[in-house]
Amino acid sequence: MKLVLASASPRRRELMALAAPAYEVCVSDVDESALTAPDPAALAQVLADAKCAAAAALRPGDVVVGCDTVVDVDGQVLGKPRDREDARRMLDSLSGRTHRVHTGVCIQAPGEQRRFCVTTEVEFWPLDAAERDAYLDSGEPYDKAGGYGIQGGAAKFVRGIRGCYFNVVGLPVSQVHRALRSMACWQALGFDESD
Ligand SMILES: Cc1cn([C@H]2C[C@H](O)[C@@H](COP(=O)(O)OP(=O)(O)OP(=O)(O)O)O2)c(=O)[nH]c1=O
């Protein structure tokens, strides 16, 4: 039995290494645009469930972790920007305000499952056009939900956060660790209480 992260995201892979002593990666194809949910947190969960299920089908008998991160401004979902104009619109909607970042997590093991969504509140300073446009030029927004990376150039935009920092980057490290450790599969994976 192996622990498997269902993700192509290099950031998520780095964070998973903090949550568990050893794991493998399995990337599967999920059409995220085909899935809907009544609110942003529910959407993050549905997408995480779908990524997990797709990888679990390829890795029967293993323990699969799927995650999805969405940004939520007043109940409106910001996914990854389509282009520069979309990214500009996203940064303008985040400027000078507090938004929420939800990461849905689904862990599927033989005979057991954990599903949960972790939310972090992030407050941005008001952004002026020059700093916003310089950030758009950096190329950083385009592969990230909400069009920014708290771990990169957008660190300068952040006035404060409430909740798990790692959740914003894409994987709520301590919650994933604790969920895995509470499952029967933790020992079957060869890990113990000190891991
Ligand atoms: C808000 C925010 C998001 N992000 C990233 C995390 C996720 O990688 C991405 C959201 O897209 P996701 O669809 O959650 O993940 P992904 O497509 O990058 O990877 P995979 O589906 O293969 O697991 O945005 C940051 O890196 N920093 C941030 O501050």
UniProtKB/TrEMBL annotation:
Belongs to the Maf family. YhdE subfamily. It comes from Ruthenibacterium intestinale. The record marks 11, 69, 151 as: Important for substrate specificity. This is dTTP/UTP pyrophosphatase. The keyword Hydrolase applies. It is an enzyme of class 3 (hydrolase). It is found in: Cytoplasm. Keywords: Cytoplasm, Hydrolase, Nucleotide metabolism.
